[in-house]
């Protein structure tokens, strides 16, 4: 691996000498990655499941129908979009506006929050994987740990302080419901995943993807699966999110007012491969900036001594454990060191 200081120097030199019609070398994909490209197919060919949460609390039949749809999506796609999820549209718009406000801040203000110490309550960075991957991704990000111990308000930038705090409360409530429905989809009691600590941490990461002069030469986010239990994603109307399904890249088309939910690595491991943590990526685009807000249910690098492994109730002689036990800080440390190299980190924990 190239030394961190050397990469920082290359990064600064790349940006100083940038030809605005070209992607700087540090962000360009290696030619081998471009040559191994999978085909892309429109969402009309492979439709990402859309699940309506209307009636989830109304009666048992409505809830059972929703649980069955979630079970199918979690097993076969690892992704689904949710409508009528209970988070007000105004809250969704406010958090997106907050991301833009922070991005538009004076560079010196943003620089004061720059860090690669992922244990801090709030940080701003270009790419966490910039120092472990062969190419940087075309985006800026800021992130904060919003649970279990929310930051003091003064630790968050004024531009996004109130909206991050407000949005996180709604996401925690929705996350609790999703974990209930996923537990029921496994044939377990509704509180099982919550009792196992899947809601111990919430890490909210806000992405700003600038317009790119050569979107075919780089990526907004490289292919990866998430080191989470679940991720709840808000995306704007630009598009670009794709999942790898049946060896093809499938668009997760924006749906006004919807939230995207995807299964993370931890839940695939805990369900012994019953639920699927799917590989996904974000394309760069030439025309407009893209905004997304990813809410990761994971304590990441924060202290968490809980040991996770395949859920005992799901195992049998016919279905023995496929993974060894792990802690989240252990998994995340190796995940960050590996970077977004296109491979699943789950393979390192297989028995």
Automatic annotation (TrEMBL):
Gene Ontology MF annotations: dioxygenase activity; metal ion binding
| InterPro entries linked | DIOX_N, IPNS-like_FE2OG_OXY, IPNS-like_sf, Oxoglu/Fe-dep_dioxygenase_dom
Its required cofactor(s), as named, are: Fe cation
Q: Give UniProt keywords alphabetically.
A: Iron, Metal-binding, Oxidoreductase
Fe2OG dioxygenase domain residues: 200-299
What Pfam families does UniProt report for this protein, alphabetically? 2OG-FeII_Oxy (PF03171), DIOX_N (PF14226)
UniProt lists the family membership as follows: Belongs to the iron/ascorbate-dependent oxidoreductase family.
- Protein name as annotated: 1-aminocyclopropane-1-carboxylate oxidase-like protein 7
Q: Which organism is it from?
A: Cardamine amara subsp. amara
């Amino acid at each position: 691996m190239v030394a961190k200081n050397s990469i920082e120097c290359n990064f600064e030199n790349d940006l100083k000498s940038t030809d605005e019609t070209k992607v700087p070398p540090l962000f360009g994909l290696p030619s081998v990655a471009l040559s191994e490209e999978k085909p892309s197919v429109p969402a009309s060919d492979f439709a990402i499941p859309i699940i309506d949460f209307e009636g989830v609390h109304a009666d048992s039949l409505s809830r059972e129908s929703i649980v069955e749809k979630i079970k199918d999506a979690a097993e076969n796609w690892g992704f689904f979009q949710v409508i009528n999820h209970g988070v007000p549209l105004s809250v969704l718009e406010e958090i997106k506006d907050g991301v833009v406000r922070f991005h538009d801040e004076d560079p010196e203000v943003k620089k004061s929050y720059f860090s690669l110490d992922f244990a801090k309550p709030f940080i701003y960075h270009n790419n966490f994987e910039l120092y472990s991957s062969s190419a940087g991704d075309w985006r800026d990000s800021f992130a904060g740990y919003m649970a279990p111990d929310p930051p003091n308000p003064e630790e968050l930038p004024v531009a996004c302080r109130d909206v991050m705090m407000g949005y996180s409360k709604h996401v925690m409530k929705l996350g609790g419901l999703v974990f209930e429905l996923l537990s029921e989809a496994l044939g377990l009691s509704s509180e099982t995943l919550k009792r196992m600590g899947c809601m111990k941490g919430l890490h909210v990461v806000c992405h700003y993807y600038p317009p790119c002069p050569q979107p075919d030469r780089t990526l907004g986010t490289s292919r990866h699966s998430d080191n989470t239990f679940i991720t709840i994603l808000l995306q704007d109307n630009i598009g670009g999110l794709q999942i790898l399904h049946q060896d093809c890249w499938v668009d997760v088309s924006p749906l006004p007012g919807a939230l995207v939910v995807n299964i993370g690595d931890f839940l695939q491991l805990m369900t012994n491969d019953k639920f699927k943590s799917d590989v996904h990526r974000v394309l760069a685009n030439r025309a407009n900036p893209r905004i997304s807000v990813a809410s990761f249910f994971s304590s990441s690098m924060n202290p968490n001594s809980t040991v996770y492994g395949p859920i005992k109730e799901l195992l049998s002689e016919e279905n023995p454990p496929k993974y060894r036990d792990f802690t989240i800080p252990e998994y995340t440390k190796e995940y960050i060191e590996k970077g977004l190299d296109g491979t699943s980190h789950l393979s390192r924990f297989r028995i």
